[in-house]
Amino acid sequence: MLLHVPDVLNAEQLARFRRELAAADWVDGRETVGSQGAQVKRNQQLADGSPLRQRLGDEVSALVRANPVFFAATLPAQILPPRFNRYAGGGTYGFHVDGSVMALPTPTGAPMQQMRSDISCTLFLAEPEEYDGGELIIHDTYGEHEVKLPAGDAIIYPSSSLHQVNPVTRGARVASFFWIQSLVRDPAQRQMLFDLDASVQSLTAAGADRANLLRLTAIYHNLLRRWADT
Ligand code: NI
Predict the structure, then answer these.
(1) How far does residue 46's CA lie from ligand 1's centre (Å)?
(2) What is the third-level CATH fold of 3-182?
(3) What's the pLDDT at 56?
(4) ∠ CA 69-49-153 to the nearest 5 degrees?
(5) CATH homologous superfamily for 187-227?
(6) What is the Å distance from ligand 1's center to 153 Cα?
């Protein structure tokens, strides 16, 4: 599923994020990538240990979990702490596939914890007219998709897809990016749950009768119970 989630950040939150990120210290983005990615990655990131990265990342995590569309589409079990990147001066990230298993941050001395990346998310923090290039190109079973969204909006897409970020030839493209492990591993099952949920919501809004809504809601939860791996 490729899904545009509008207004993850409101205008006040977006303005504050942009102000803080404009004054941030950026490091080479190759710090957080394997050897396959390092050959094609040319961008900047906030260092993983930076207090700003942690604070804004926690805020993004909380906002997406509270966003009804994001939540229904991803059914998050784990969210990797969001990172922030910046592409400028020809910065690009050539075709690559994201890592499939990622280490979650743990306190020193605690056992290692890992998550599976089912879904990738990019939250755009610069307006499309502020930069040239920087399109996110995603290859899935239906072909190639080009994504460049308004600031404050997010795209979610399968982590299994090949993707790239086109070179930014003017201005700067700033974004947050992160991965989600879903309670429902299979994308087709997740899509069916999302569609069923959307139908229940719109039938409720249209004033459908309670007995039928209750039966559909029970089916939703019983499918989720059957498919969730917790
Ligand atoms: Ni990627």
Answers:
(1) 16
(2) Jelly Rolls (2.60.120)
(3) 98
(4) 25
(5) Rabenosyn, Rab binding domain (4.10.860.20)
(6) 18
